Amino acid sequence: MSREEAVRRIEQVADENLTKLNLSGLQLQEVPPEIVKCTHLTWLGLNNNQITSIPETLSQLSNLERLELNNNQITSIPKALGQMFNLKGLDLSHNNIIFIPEALGQLSSLTRLDLSNNQITSIPEALGQLFNLIELDIRGNQITSIPEALGQLSNLKWLDLANNQIISIPEVLGQLSNLRGLDLYNNQITSIPGALGQLSNLKSLYLSNNNITSIPEAFGQLSNLTRLDFRMNQITSIPEMFGQLSNLRRLDLWGNELTSIPEAFEQLSNLTWLYLSWNQITSIPETLGQLSNLTELYLGDNQISSIPETLGQLSNLTELALYNNQISSIPEALGQLSNLTELKLRKNQISSIPEALGQLSNLELLDLSYNQISSIPEALGQLSNLELLDLSYNQITEIPEAIRNMKNLKKLDL
Asked: I need a labelling partner for 76 at 20 to 30 A (CA). Which of 21, 30, 243, 299 fits?
């Protein structure tokens, strides 16, 4: 039935000189040969089928601008595809392709190429000839190196090479002056070339899950950067130049080997998310209280012994996580965090809860488990939006009546 339906659609498109044909999800095992009749086609969708090969005859569709063959069982790309000179978008993601033919470098009109989630082991130098390319996605393959030729893609805005086996980043990537996003997550990269600091239009940079030990000073030049992800590396320090990243909104550095937070962070005035959990940080600089736009601050799994009063100035903060540290007291100033919805302080050495926490009118989650707390202040009963209160594994013997009567409390762990 699926082939009959495909042929029916092909005949209709051919008879009416239509420009779009969707044959996706029809359980096709091959591309119907009748498709060559559709000479006016500009868009062809063959996604989510069981197609194992691309017929060379497809290159006869000379007007085709977009070809989508994702989620099939294709193992190779025919050289003839390189003759489709009007092709602007080619999607071959989620197949079993091992090799990219040099012929793809002839697709001079191509603006978007998606070869993600295949079994490709190398990128041919010829892809450096795709001068109109704006998006290149080759994530989820088995690539070990980035060819120098990719530095010639002057119009490229997004380059995704995540989930591969890449060991190094070539300096020439610093020439991609129009690049907005670069994703190299989950590779085997050990160092970052300073040349990446030349990517003046870069907004997003993902380098998490690698083996990086240091960040080059030149990164301070990335003035348009809004998101920077360095999670799960082996970074030991952050350069002071980071303070120049005035447009940075999200910074992920959890799971590294940092021992301190640079004072220069106070200059990151647009920062909204700061993740520094799972490091070896021993103290929080008072200047962090100047990050007035911060909404989420994560500093769990470190070696912090005290919370500075200045954190009470973070008026937009909604989540504060300081679990699994060595904190012995909670400053009264935290009661000023009027927008706070989650406060996580489990596994510390806290002995008392300040009355001021009762002022956190928007608080929904309060976790103080695994501490040394012996009593609960009545003031916590004022937390009218609190839904989860975890005080388990402490030394509490009595629960105030005000806590028992909290209307929105859904879970109380003692």
From this structure: 21
